[in-house]
């Protein structure tokens, strides 16, 4: 047997729409070839129930694996390209009292995610220049079980020296960052927000690199004025927080970004979009050909502000922007369906819940949801199972679209020969209940506590190696197996 040559036998793979093929996937570190077993693909509706699925298994013939390959039985489960979560805060180095790469990358692996792109703002130092980029790479190098890429960042504090900032942007792009992140409103001292004028300037310089500029889109003066007013009268409720970051705050910021994208022609990406109003602006701008895109997250697709009424999850649900209302939730699903939204991310941001999620003063509660472990089963359960998304679209939103958007598709995002053998093996015929106690991230808490999902991640593989097996507490590889992936040129 040749070392490292494997074949996944008896796996179902998506071949477009809701159609599936029974396949053998031959791989080493990369995918070698895929062989289909059925003369015609099978429609998902013929496999929906466990009985139909079992019957299907009995009807198909067995295969002989070539002797030089080690067979891995896929048990007729769904094999998808490993998930890519392009918006996470894994906090190494600098904020590791909240989260770190060992825990978070392990959580990702158990959640069917094989590549993440880590944000530049929740590191110390922030990834705003070449030296800080090297510091971060050095700090993370031996600490991840899955592959990772980095965002570069533009902080308001860097605008003191324009020529220097311009050079930093160029050097970060040359270093292989996947894109640039900036804020219209930031609560971080080490990574401050940009004025509209600064955002426009940053977009021009980033435009020269061909990379996207991603922006946290809430309008600062609205957010801060309302916050100050509420604090002055001692209003510390969740209602006051949500009111300070309302639909208007997001819509105004998105409108500003549309104008900047129009003026500069730089691709601008709105992170964690939360409202129907902003989505409508975005859809119209895209119809005009303006280079603007957006993502949303599971919490915006599942919760509304009504859920803040529940004290058991209230503080765990705090994030910025806050979740909105029923019409927004439905509109975001529609945006995923019709292509207005590019992909689904988690904005994974954890903390020690005993220390930072217990305050009665909602302004003091840390804003962040550690969701990287739940995104893949969530989208299959709430999107695909509920008929909101096709099988093909679900997989695009989780893997292929982020790979293409961030230039990782020379290696990631598809089950095709030559790409990295990154897989998630999913059981769609079993359900699970989300439990904080079973999470692998450093801070174990989630607003999704008790939510049942009709999809379970059985295994994750990175570059031909099993990295996570359902039921285990730890990853199947050592931290450090995960590699830095630079943005490709193609
Ligand atoms: Zn974020």
Q: What brief labels describe this structure?
A:
single chain, 490 residues, alpha/beta, Urease, subunit C, domain 1, TIM Barrel, 2 domains, 8-stranded mixed beta sheet, 6-stranded parallel beta sheet, binds zinc ion
Provide a descriptive summary of the structure in words:
Strands 1, 2, 3, 4, 5, 16, 19 and 20 form an eight-stranded mixed sheet that branches. The protein has a six-stranded parallel sheet with strand order 9-10-11-12-13-14. Helix content is 32%, strand content 20%. The longest helix has 18 residues, at 247-264. 54% of the residues are buried. By secondary structure, it is α/β, with parallel strands linked by helices. The protein contains 14 helices and 20 strands. α5 crosses α8. The mean pLDDT is 96. Bound molecules: zinc ion.
Quick summary:
The protein has 490 residues and is of the alpha/beta class. Helix content is 32%, strand content 20%.
Strands, total number: 20
Euclidean distance between termini CA atoms: 36 Å
User: Helix- and strand-based class?
Assistant: alpha/beta
Corresponding CATH architecture of the largest domain: Alpha-Beta Barrel
Average pLDDT for all residues: 96
Radius of gyration, whole Å = 22 Å
Largest beta sheet, briefly? 8 strands, mixed
What is the CATH homologous superfamily assignment of the largest domain?
Metal-dependent hydrolases
CATH top level class name of the largest domain? Alpha Beta
What share of residues is helical?
25-40%
Strand content: 15-25%
The best one-word shape is globular
């Amino acid at each position: 047997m040749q070392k490292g040559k494997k074949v996944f036998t008896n796996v179902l793979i998506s071949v477009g729409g809701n159609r599936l093929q029974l396949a053998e996937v031959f791989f080493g570190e990369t995918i070698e070839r895929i062989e289909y077993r059925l003369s015609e693909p099978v429609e998902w509706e013929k496999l929906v129930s466990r009985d139909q699925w079992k019957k299907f298994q009995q009807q198909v013939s067995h295969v002989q694996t070539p002797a030089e390959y080690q067979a891995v039985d896929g048990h007729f489960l769904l094999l998808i390209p490993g998930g890519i979560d392009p918006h996470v805060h894994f906090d190494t180095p600098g904020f590791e009292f909240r989260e770190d790469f060992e825990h978070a990358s392990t959580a990702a692996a158990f959640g069917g995610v094989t590549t993440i792109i880590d944000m530049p703002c929740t590191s110390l130092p922030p990834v705003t220049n070449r030296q800080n980029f090297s510091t971060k790479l050095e700090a993370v190098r031996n600490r991840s079980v899955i592959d990772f890429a980095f965002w570069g960042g533009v902080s308001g504090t860097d605008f003191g020296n324009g020529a220097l900032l311009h050079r930093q942007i160029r050097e970060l792009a040359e270093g292989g960052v996947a894109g640039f992140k900036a804020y219209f409103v930031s609560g971080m001292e080490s990574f401050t927000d940009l004025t509209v004028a600064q955002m426009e300037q940053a977009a021009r310089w980033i435009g020269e690199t061909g990379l996207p500029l991603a922006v946290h889109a809430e309008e600062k003066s609205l957010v801060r004025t309302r916050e100050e007013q509420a604090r002055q009268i001692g209003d510390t409720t969740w209602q006051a927080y949500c009111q300070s970051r309302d639909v208007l705050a997001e819509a105004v910021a998105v409108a500003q970004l549309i104008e900047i994208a129009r003026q500069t022609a730089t691709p601008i990406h709105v992170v964690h979009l939360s409202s129907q109003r902003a989505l409508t602006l975005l859809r119209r701008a895209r119809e005009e050909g303006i280079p603007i895109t957006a993502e949303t997250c599971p919490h915006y697709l599942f919760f509304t502000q009504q859920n803040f009424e529940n004290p058991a999850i209230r503080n765990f649900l705090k994030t910025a922007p806050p979740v909105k209302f029923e019409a927004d939730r439905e509109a975001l699903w529609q945006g995923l369906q019709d292509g207005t939204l590019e992909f689904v991310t988690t904005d994974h941001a954890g903390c020690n819940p005993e220390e930072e999620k217990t305050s009665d003063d909602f302004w003091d509660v840390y804003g962040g949801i550690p969701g990287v472990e739940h995104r893949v089963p969530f989208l299959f359960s709430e999107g695909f199972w509920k008929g909101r998304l096709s099988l093909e679209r679900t997989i695009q939103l989780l893997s292929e679209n982020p790979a293409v958007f961030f230039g990782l598709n020379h290696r990631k995002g598809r089950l095709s020969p030559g790409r990295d053998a990154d897989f998630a093996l999913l059981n769609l015929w079993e359900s699970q209940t989300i439990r904080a106690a079973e999470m692998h991230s450093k801070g174990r808490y989630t607003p999704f506590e008790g939510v049942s999902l009709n999809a379970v991640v059985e295994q994750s593989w990175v570059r031909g190696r099993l990295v996570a097996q359902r039921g285990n507490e730890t990853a199947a590889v050592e931290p450090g197996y995960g590699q830095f992936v630079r943005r490709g040129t193609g």
